[in-house]
Amino acid sequence: MSSSSRLGGAARPRAQHRHSGPSTALAMATAPASRDRPASRDPPPPSRDAGRGKMAVCVAVIAKENYPLYIRSVPTENELKFHYTVHTSLDVVDEKISAMGKALVDQRELYLGLLYPTEDYKVYGYVTNSKVKFVMVVDSSNTALRDNEIRSMFRKLHNSYTDIMCNPFYNPGDRIHSRAFDNMVNSMMMQVC
Amino acid sequence: MAGSQWDFPVELCCRPMAFVTLTGLDVVYNAVHRAVWDAFCANRRADRVPISFKVLPGDHEYPKCRTKRTSYEWYIPKGILKTGWMNKHLNLVPALVVVFYELDWDEPQWKEKQSECATRVEIVRQSLQGRNTKVAVVLIQKKTPLPPGEDVIASERAAALCNACDLSGKSLFVLPHTDHLVGYIIRLENAFYEHAQTYYYTEIRRVKSHKEFLNKTTHQLLFVRHQFKIAFFSELKQDTQNALKNYRTAYNLVHELRAHETNMLEIKTMAGFINYKICRLCFQHNTPLDAIAQFRKHIDLCKKKIGSAELAFEHAAWMSKQFQAFGDLFDEAIKLGLTAIQTQNPGFYYQQAAYYAQERKQLASMLCNHDSSVVYPNPDPLETQTGVLDFYGQRPWRQGTLSFDLSDPEKEKMGILSLQLKEKNVLHSELIITLLSNAVAQFKKYKCPRMKSHLMVQMGEEYYFAKDYAKALKLLDYVMCEYRSEGWWTLLTSILTTALKCSYLMAQIKDYITYSLELLGRASTLKDDQKSRIEKNLIKVLMNESPDPEPDCDASAVKASQKLWADRVSLAGSNVFTIEVQDFIPFVQCKAKFLSPSFHVDVPVQFDIYLRADCPHPIRFSKLCISLNNQDYNQYCVVEEAYQQSDILEQSSQGTMCLVPGKTRKFTFKFVAKTEDVGKKIEITSVDLVLGSESGRCVILNWRGGGGDAASSQEALQASRSFRRRPKLPDNEVHWDSLAIQASTMIISRVPNISVQLRHEPPALTNEMYCLIVTIQSHEETVAKDVKLTAGLKPGQDANLTQKTQVTLHGTDTCDDSFPALLPDIPIGDLQPGEKMEKPIYIRCGTVGARMFLVYVSYLINTTVEGKEILCKCHRDETVTIETVFPFDVAVKFVSTKLEHLDRVFVDIPFLLMTDILSASPWPLTIVTSQLQLSASMTPVDQLESYVENVVLQTGESASECFCLRCPPVTNASGVATGCYVISWKRSSPVESVPVVSTVITLPHVVVETIPLHVNTDLPSFGRVRESLPVRYHLQNKTNLVQDVEVSVEPSDAFMFSGLKQIRLRILPGTQQEVLYNFYPLMAGYQQLPSLHINLLRFPNFTNQLLKRFIPTHIFVKPQGRQADDNSIAAA
Fold first, then answer.
1. Mean pLDDT throughout B422-446?
2. Among residues B940, B941, B1009, B1007, which one has the least CA distance to residue B976?
3. The domain containing residue B132 runs over which residues?
4. What is the full DSSP assignment across A24-39?
5. Could you tell me if B454 lies within 8 Å of chain A, comparing CB atoms?
6. Annotated region Disordered: where (chain A) (predicted)?
7. How many domains does one find in chain B?
8. Which of B396, B805, B879, B953 is the most exposed place for a label (fewest CB within 10 A)?
9. In chain A, what residues touch B718 (CB-CB under 8 Å)?
10. Which has the closest alpha carbon to B464: B425, B499, B491?
11. pLDDT, tens digit, 9 for 90 and up, residues B437-472
12. Is pLDDT of A48 > 50?
């Protein structure tokens, strides 16, 4: 998240960052001018009730300059492997972003869909208007997760990220250290039983 | 190589083509036959029919055909597909055998030849007993045949020959050996192709006809085999659509087979073959998505079919091969025009193949780690009698066994052992690296730089496992910067760790140090204990000792490297390593900062070097030196401290040269700039930090410029965005993030201590000697020596201004154009403290407009800095903008003697020239004098003396003059130069005495016309009512002709008159006539005179109108004076 991208969304109320707490900021952000927040916050993510098995194995937030702001993977597996997976998926993200660069900002779809399938995992991508990327890795065998559910998971992620941005003590571009964000990601990565 | 057992057989991968053999051709000794054969096989382009030809002798033995089975009832197949079957139908059993025979239709010994030919055909038929192979005869003839139907003998003999050879007419061909050989050959091979297709069609029918005899229980294998054969024959027939359909059926049938550990390999082998064929055909049909879908299905179906657990590496090898083959097919299709995309390209398949190869390596290392005492079984269970397998995918030691129970467990064990021992010798890393590099090439093509880097890391790691450390290091070093520049520290750390191992194992000291530096740095994600270990090793290396081995290294390699390190230690030379750090992230950070962006030369230059270490333990360094762009200063920018080697890790932070982790350390440097560097930039070119000592090993960390490394620019950006408040620190400490690098400073001259004042009276007037008085006063405490003044037009303005501006020191004389616009370095001498001096400067501006003038005073002065005497050059400059304006405007006009405006003048007739000088100067002007300089074509009527001499004009005032002139006759009527008007003037109150300025005004040209007659009137200035008013008209003839003139007077209401009312005169050339009238005014006021009409008979064009100009028309008539009134006034 850089200053330039924030300038891009000039319509957004600058006051967001000055609010004392995330909760107030969240209430503020329902205004249509809030660009960095997904347009629709419903339907509520069904994944919470849909069973513990169908969850992500890795969630990452990548800065505009493509360095990681946050990466978390299931502890049972090789963390390094997921770092590589997320990093290589940025090739596709970059390509998709440059392809849609010409599209109008308002009509732009933030959800990038399936980036590329590997033998074992599916990698999904999402990019905010400020070019912050979310990448989610899902087990290939996990057929229960449909596109819609992935979408709503990303939306949840985006909302949580926006809350972090609203925190006046958070400096955009710094690595994310937030308990609320951790908890939210944990809820998405509930271990396969 | 053992790995090749997984490669697909050549006959599977080739494109099947109809097989046709040619007999009766002697291609070695017979030139004609050679030419025929060449025409068949040379230059087979894509537009030729797909046939593979082979020349065989006429008596060649073809593979024997087994007797046809009449019933399958008791037949139990031993495997799915025989290994020789495909090759047999591609290269051994022809679809058509062609018998070439030289025979012309008009052959004299026809009968003998005919029977010989029939014999040859018979021999071929014998050899093909039981097969459906077609036979055809080609007669090579010397003569060009006649068109069909015209040659009666030919058709007769052809029928006879067919009869004798038992051939249908369609199987007999004639090949005339003439010029058009290739054309005939192409027609021939098309005919052969038709025969071949018929053959394969019947073969397909034959195989299909077996189907009804089969049953599902015992003949399961045959279903697959037959289906495969039908598909393969369809391919030979070039019917790819049906081939694909049949392969698909075969594929489904393979997976319906009862699978068991013993036949799993056979099933997978066949499934792989059929899948390969399907994918290949799909790509050929340009349906790549079908190919991909089939391949995915294939992988999904087979992924879990591992087979024998002891031979699990075989499954991985097989999987790897599947992916690799698909990648090859995909790549081939792309070469033929298919477009791949970023997310679907062959690279993914090569990558997956590489992963399975890695898995194979892992499994092999687990399953094949037999003790060296285990010997390869004898007799070799993998040997077969023929040297090859009978069926694809079977075990050599139990070929054709269908039972799932193992009849001989001991034999099975031996077989597995021999396979495992063979696998042990496979160079897995080589396979993996080849596959990875294939994938790298693909990803490079499809814009996946990160994927490419990732694969290169894996290649590097594989080289590391293969103990090719040099190559591993090369690859890792190459990709490292990608991860560094994108800030993926976890990945960078992992790569660095491997690179460190490589450099340790090769004992590459410089690399070892470089990687250690970065692994200790802030970008490293290693745990502190690891960092601590690395730092200790680094210090050992600096102390000329061997470091401890890196963890998880191969024991034998460690042993070898320890020896290398020991050798390195004993070598004395080349112990200084310079490491440029700006391209990576070392554990010491450096920032250089000049205290100010500029320093006066009489003030010492100061800068700070900030250092900070990120390693876990404090570290000492031996020297810090800074290089500046002027190397003379470098001697002042060194900190050095001798210390014992053992002190290097001393825990105390007392020493000046000790960096404590997390603490920022500041070093201040100070030096006096040289006076010749005034106006120059002083830049820090590099900062060198020396670790270790010359006696042990010495590492120089070299920062280019004022510090900073690969990560610091991003950090600086983040820090600048941050609005977090930083906790207060003690005075002598600073926040590292808040420090900004300032690597250069300017040396500027000493602040001058003199005043320069300018006194003048703007604006300047054009061409005057404008006086600018410069007052210089010294406020220095010592003598200002060698004071010089530079004054004049400031350079860099419009070039025309330079031409039109002159500057001089002498105001008494007017300067001309040769004077310069800028007077440089006017020596003034020395100025004592407090002394004041004035210097007038005269400026002449030739054009109006604004000009910038520069007054620059420089001098030398002695001063002391830091106890050092220096001679400073100081200067002060002033600029002033001076506007130049015209001093006055001059208006000139021509008027007649009646003061009427004239747009032309008449020859010899006097007129008036009026000049009007209007002052535009804000200062009073004195017109010293004025002078009218007439041109030759003008003559004055009276004296031309100036009327405005010594007149003073205030702003807006004007002075006018009037001159009476006459114009003698001229030839050029269009315009005559009048002359010039010269005004000599000066300011009324000049600052100094200045010369008079002469401004020359060129007078306008005037049009001169001649007239034939001029009328001159004598008229009193006024009349009085009822008093006689005599008027005399002088009519002058201006021509060389005698003129007849008619004069008439029209009466006016206001006058009575006496005189000639109408008269006709004759005037001689150059003379004049007078006409006298007496007017008697009747009314007072401004009255119209009785008008005089003059008619020139010789000049009908000459109108009265023109003359009216000379003849007065009105006169003022005063009322009649009253005597009484005069008296009363007198009385009063």
1. 92
2. B1007
3. 13-209
4. HHHHHTTSTT-TTS-S
5. yes
6. 1-52
7. 7
8. B879
9. 171, 173-174
10. B499
11. 999 999 999 889 999 999 999 999 999 999 999 999
12. no
